[in-house]
Amino acid sequence: MQQVRLRWSELAASLVIAGMVFCGVVLGQEVAPWEASNPIVPIPDPPLGIGTEKNGPAKLTEFPDPPTPERVRLGRWLFFDKRLSDDDTISCATCHRPENAFSEPTPVSTGIGGQKGGRKAPSFINQAWTSLPHFFWDGRAASLEEQAGGPMINPIEMGNRDHEVVVAKIAAIQSYPKYFKEAFGTEEVTIARITKAIADYERTRMSGNSAWDRYRAGDRNAVSDEVKKGHQLFFGNAFCIDCHLGQNLTDSKFHNLGVGWDPETETFADEGRYAVTKEEADKGAFKTPSLRDVSKRAPYMHDGSIQTLREVVKLYSKGGEPNPHLSRKIDRRFAEQLDFTEEQIIVLIRFMEALDGEGYQDTAPTAFPQ
To answer: Which residue of 135, 222, 305, 331 could cross-link 141, Cys pair, CB 3.0 to 4.6 Å?
Structure first.
């Protein structure tokens, strides 16, 4: 009987210790609330449908410089931390909202002081598997790291004078250097480390296991008959696959659909890729977006000028907006063959809705290093 009592006593002690850990206390040492709300977690495996490209890495851990749990944790704080902006009001997540598949529900982004940008924030879901190293709508950034650093010194977005200001601000927060050491080996805070951590967090935002992925994997009941018809049309006579291909349903290239073209002045409100390349053929061309979780990303196009997926499909159906640089993949030669019927419009929309996936969802940490 004494032996039984001892065992129950040991169990009770274990439960007390477990309770202390759960409450953020281990042997009298408090765990910082920001650590409790943002613990180190293993690098996630890709959901169904992602990591399937031939001759490519199947998992994030197979990349040449794979994300680490420590860098991802640091990057998650930095991604949601408004102190990266000049006036402490704007974070990366202000425009790249998790609930909108890391895009936003507005036509264009809003930065410090309520300033409006000229473009809508694109989603970065599954960008670890991008087929070409082009980021932003115009492809001016060659990596996720470069993309992460751009808004910090944009006067309309996060508004810092330069990256040195950002580095000094983060380094001055007492607890942050500790996590830079955890992630990079030393406490030194640099812009390269800040953007690397943010980019590694972004790489873990993967979307897959959609109804369409399950259908392709053999579950014939995963989607409706309308989705199946939309699938056939999308990969067939609708020519959507000319630009929307691969596991991310994008070629990561640049195409002119005529969005933003003014026929009276014969100019584009935004010249897109041309601003980067200065090639006439690139005027009005923008990067093909992934269609993963597209239903969550209205309004559409680089300027948010199209409100619904129905309007997007109808734009393609008529062959885009005529202009001197209209993409050959969208011009009227195809439009004359397409001219979608109402049923075709509906099944294409149902197909795109079936691309809503899981694996990327997140919410902001409830506390940040102080």
So the answer is: 135
β-pair partners for 215: none
Across the chain, what does the average pLDDT equal? Answer: 91
Residues constituting the chain: 370
Which pLDDT tens digit goes with each residue over 73-98?
Answer: 999 999 999 999 999 999 999 999 99
Which pLDDT belongs to residue 294? 98
**Same fold across 35-203 and 211-353:** yes
Residue 367 in contact with residue 34, Cβ under 8 Å?
yes
Residue type, 31: V
Q: Give the residue carrying structure tokens 């259908």.
A: 215
d(CA 60, CA 67): 7
Question: Locate tokens 């030393």: which residue?
Answer: 186
Question: How far are the Cα atoms of 65, 357, 360 from residue 363, in angstroms, in the given order?
Answer: 26, 16, 10
CATH entry, 35-203, from 1.10.287.1040, 3.20.20.100, 3.90.420.10, 1.10.760.10: 1.10.760.10
Residue 325 CA to residue 285 CA, distance in Å, equals 8
Whole-number pLDDT of residue 55: 81
pLDDT-flagged residues of the chain (< 70): 1-29, 332-337
The CA radius of gyration of the chain, in Å to the nearest whole number, is: 24
| Residue among 227, 252, 94 nearest 158 (CA) | 94
Q: What is the pLDDT of residue 335?
A: 60
**Phi, psi dihedral angles at 208 (to 5 degrees):** -165, -160
**157 catalytic, yes or no?**
yes
Quick count: other Cβ atoms within 10 Å of Cβ 90? 24
Hey, where are the domains in the chain? 2-31, 35-203, 211-353
pLDDT score, position 333: 58
The domain 211-353 belongs to what CATH superfamily? Answer: Cytochrome c-like domain (1.10.760.10)
CA distance 167 to 194: 8
Secondary element (H or E) of residue 287: strand 285-287
Strand duo 25-26 + 29-30: pairing: antiparallel
From the candidates 157, 202, 271, 353, give the one annotated as an active-site residue. 157
pTM of the model: 0.91
